[in-house]
Design a protein that fits this description.
By secondary structure, this protein is an alpha/beta fold. The protein has one domain: Rossmann fold. The protein is built from ten helices and nine strands. It has a seven-stranded mixed beta sheet with strand order 5-2-1-6-7-9-8, sandwiched between helices. Helix 1 packs parallel to helix 6 and helix 6 runs antiparallel to helix 7.
C-alpha cells in the first residue's frame, strides 16, 4: 500500500461545492483520526490563483496555499463543477497533473474533473468512469470508460481514481480512503458518517456500483453540458481571441 502523507484538493473558480468540499471534509476527518494515532496527513486546499476562490454557487473559500508548478503531493484531487471546463484548457494545470502521474503519484477526480485528467492525457490505458454528462465525449476523444458505467473506479496499478457526478462523491471517497489507508480506516469513516447502512459493502471495493443510466436522459444532459464541462479546444481558443 502506498504511504500517503500529503493530499492536495485543487480548487479553481466555479468549482462545484459538493465535488470539492465533500471529499475534502472526509479526508480531513481521516487526517484527524491519523493524528490521534501519532501519524501525519496533510490535507491542503490550494489553487494556482491563491487567496480566495469563488465556487460555482458563490461560496468564497480561503486557500491554504498558492500553488507553484514545482509543488508535489502524494495525491492530487481534481473536483468537478462548471469551472472544470476552463481548467481543462489551463496548460499549467495540465502539466502539473502530468508531472504527478509521471512520478508515480496518485491522481484523482470526480464529475467534470475527470475531463481535466482526460485532457492532461494521463488516462490512457486506465480503468476509468465519469459522470453521465461526459460519458459520450470522453470515449469519442480516446478515453474509453468501463461499461456499464460505474459510480467510481480505483485503478491501483496506475494510481488513478475517478468517480461520477456529485451523488457518487461521498461513497467513492470512502472507497478511495479504503484503498489508500486500509479497510479499518474506510470502515470507521463509513460508520461514523452513517454511510455504511445505505451503501453497504460496495464502499470497500475498487469498483463502484453500476450506474443505471437512462439513455434518453443521458443524451439530454450531454447536449446541455458537454461543451461546458469539456469545451472543444479550437472553439475555446476562438472565443478567447474574439
Amino acid at each position: 500500500m502506498t504511504r500517503i502523507r500529503s493530499i492536495l484538493f485543487l480548487a479553481f473558480p466555479n468549482a462545484g461545492e459538493q465535488d470539492l468540499l465533500a471529499p475534502w471534509e472526509l479526508l480531513k476527518s481521516v487526517a484527524w483520526s491519523l493524528g490521534a494515532q501519532g501519524e501525519q496527513l496533510e490535507v491542503t486546499l490550494g489553487s494556482f490563483e491563491g487567496g480566495i476562490v469563488t465556487t460555482q454557487m458563490g461560496a468564497k473559500l480561503q486557500m491554504d496555499r498558492k500553488l507553484e508548478p514545482s509543488d508535489r503531493f502524494d495525491l492530487v484531487y481534481v473536483p468537478g463543477g462548471i469551472g472544470a471546463g476552463q481548467l481543462s484548457l489551463n496548460a499549467e494545470v495540465l502539466e502539473f497533473l502530468r508531472a504527478h502521474q509521471r512520478e508515480g503519484r496518485w491522481v484523482a477526480a470526480n464529475c467534470a474533473g475527470v475531463g481535466v485528467l482526460h485532457r492532461a492525457g494521463i488516462l490512457a490505458g486506465a480503468k476509468v468512469t465519469s459522470p453521465a454528462t461526459l460519458a459520450r465525449r470522453l470515449p469519442a476523444q480516446g478515453t474509453p470508460l468501463e461499461s456499464p458505467r460505474r459510480a467510481w473506479l480505483v485503478d491501483r496499478e496506475r494510481k488513478i481514481f475517478t468517480s461520477g457526478g456529485a451523488a457518487t462523491v461521498h461513497p467513492g471517497t470512502i472507497a478511495l480512503v479504503t484503498e489508500l489507508f486500509g479497510e479499518q480506516q474506510g470502515r470507521a469513516l463509513a460508520a461514523g458518517w452513517d454511510t455504511l447502512p445505505l451503501h453497504g459493502e460496495a464502499l470497500f471495493s475498487t469498483l463502484g456500483p453500476v450506474m443505471s443510466d437512462d439513455a434518453e436522459l443521458a443524451s439530454t444532459l450531454q447536449e446541455q453540458w458537454e461543451n461546458v464541462f469539456l469545451p472543444p479546444v479550437a472553439s475555446a481558443r476562438a472565443d478567447s481571441a474574439a
